[in-house]
Structure formats: C-alpha cells, structure tokens
Amino acid sequence: MRYLETRKARIEIIPMIDIMLFLLIFFVMLTLRMIPASGHLTKLPTSSTAVTIPPPKLLVEIRSDGNLLVEGKVLTPAQLTARLRQRDNSKTAITIAGNQTASLQQVMNAIDAIKAGGATEIGLATRNAGSK
User: Fold this and answer.
1) Which of 30, 55, 58, 130 shows a CA-CA span of 20 to 30 A to 13?
2) How far lies 28's CA from each of 24, 32, 117, in Å?
3) Res. 132: pLDDT tops 60
C-alpha cells in the first residue's frame, strides 16, 4: 500500500527563474526601443536657454553634407517636403537636430522644407551650455 502514501509538495523553482529571466529581457528590450533618438552620434550646439521638451513625433537630423536623416533614411529637403505632405501634419511636432558643423543655411533649408510640408510645430535640439 505504498501508493496511497501522501507525498510532500515540492516547489519547482527552475520554471520561475525562466519566467523572471524572460520578463527581464522583455523589459530591457522595451526600454531600449523607447529611446527616441535614431542612434546616430550628433554633436548638438549649446544654448544657455535650452529647455526639455517632450519627445518629438518626428526627428530630423541635419548631416554635414546638407542632407537630412529622417527615420533612418537620408532625404533631400525636397524629398522631406513630399514625405510630410503625405502625412497629416496638423499637430506633428518636428524637432531639428543639427550638429555643430551645420550652417545656418542648412538649418533654414530644413525649416523651409518642413513648413512647405505643412508642419507648424518645429523645435530645435540643443544641449545645455554647462553639459558636455
């Protein structure tokens, strides 16, 4: 009558460790995906009056050759205008991030292309003058 004996309950910990590891990896990947920048190293100009703004809906980076980097694709100002006309730009917040070598003319070309595309909320990305 050995088969009628009550066995002591045992807690299996290995499946719990697997689930916790999966959750850790899931949240790390989710957190990395939420970073709004495209991953390109851009030396932003500094400003003593820089303020923090909410993450942009669209980030436009000005490259040193004058082309624009939008969502991982290199576009000319005319291509950016055409792309923005295809979207609903009534409340699209667009941030322009130019590096320190970008000329004022390149920034104005980007602003003109964005305005021609119909967007009205434009911000310029900078660093605080005290930060490196």
Assistant:
1) 30
2) 6, 6, 36
3) no
C-alpha torsion angle, residues 108, 109, 111, 116 (rounded to 10)? 140
What whole-number distance in Å separates Cα of residue 59 and Cα of residue 35? 12
Phi, psi of 128 (to 5 degrees): -65, 145
Give phi and psi for 33, each to the nearest 5: -70, -25
Of 32-36, 88-92, 93-97, 113-117, the range with the lowest mean pLDDT is 32-36
Domains, the chain, ordered by start: 46-128 (3.30.420.270)
- Mean pLDDT calculated for residue range 2-29: 85
Tokens representing 54 are 């909410």
Across 33-42, 47-56, 103-112, least confident range: 33-42
Residue 60's beta-bridge partner residues? 70, 96
pTM score, whole prediction? 0.56
For residue 16, the one-letter residue type is M
Question: 């660093």: which residue's tokens?
Answer: 127
* Cβ pair 52, 18 in contact under 8 A: no
